[in-house]
Amino acid sequence: MPDTVDFKKLAKELYLPKTTPAIVDVPEMTFIMIDGQGDPNTAASFQNAMEILYGLSYSIKMSKMTGRTPVGYFDYVVPPLEGLWSVDGVTNFRGYKVTDKNTLRWTSMIRQPDFVTPAVFAEVQQSLNKKKPHLDTSLARLEVFTEGLCAQVMHIGAYDDEAATIDRLEAFITKGGYATDISATRRHHEIYLSDPRKTLVEKLKTVIRHPIRK
Questions:
Q1: What angle do CA 72, 79, 111 make, to 5 degrees?
Q2: Do residues 33 and 107 touch, judged by C-beta distance below 8 A?
């Protein structure tokens, strides 16, 4: 194992796809998740979720500095933010054609190493509550998530310009003899590899992933 684990490099097939769509079988992984609704550009609940997610994730990473290192701990790069998306009243939302972003329902999440158990998570929640009492860390949960068979592609550019990339992904799915399998439990999925505060809009990299079935 390298001195510092970077999950993006260890599992390039999951995090660094090409701009040509491909099939991937996504294994079981552990995430910290927060559910919410509203326009991510304006909703206070979304910004609050970001502060909680990153606060918990970095608290876990830096636990080695507190003298309470979890069993099995190894140094690692905090994985990228991910999002599962749906829209009120739409049963097969595929990531675009949103007329009102306030109707968006989202699950924002960050992957965690396998040593993050419910006990480790609960301890970090309590610690962050003491440091930042304005944050309601009870909104977050630790969940083991298995996505299974999916098709994915790299989108480069603005989030609002994803439609053409999604259309290519959907065409690839159909041509390959698969069907998009979006439901209440299998949703349009995005992985945000770029920091929009530091990256030009035209260079933003986003993995777009759709669950599929034969």
A1: 65
A2: yes
Q: What tens digit of pLDDT does each residue of 119-170 get?
A: 999 999 999 999 999 999 999 999 999 999 999 999 999 999 999 999 999 9
C-alpha dist (Å) from residue 48 to 34, 92, 140, 199: 10, 27, 11, 22
**For 105-125, how does the pLDDT look when each residue is reduced to its tens digit (9 = 90+)?**
999 999 999 999 999 999 999
7: enclosing H helix or E strand: helix 7-10
- Which domains are delineated in the chain? 7-213 (3.20.80.10)
Contact (Cβ atoms closer than 8 angstroms) between residue 29 and residue 144: yes
Q: How far apart are CA 103 and CA 131, in angstroms?
A: 33
Q: What are phi and psi of 187, to 5 degrees?
A: -125, 165
- Calpha distance 174→180 (Å, rounded): 8
Residue 39's SS3 state is coil
Distance CA 53, CA 132 (A): 13
Q: What is the pTM of this model?
A: 0.96
DSSP line for 52-71: HHHHHHHHHHGGGGTT-PPT
Residue pointed to by tokens 């998009």: 180
Residue 176: phi and psi, rounded to 5, are -80, 0
Q: What CA–CA distances, in Å, run from 177 to 9, 23, 147, 183, 214?
A: 30, 12, 19, 19, 7
Among all chains, which residue has been given the structure tokens 């965690």? 112
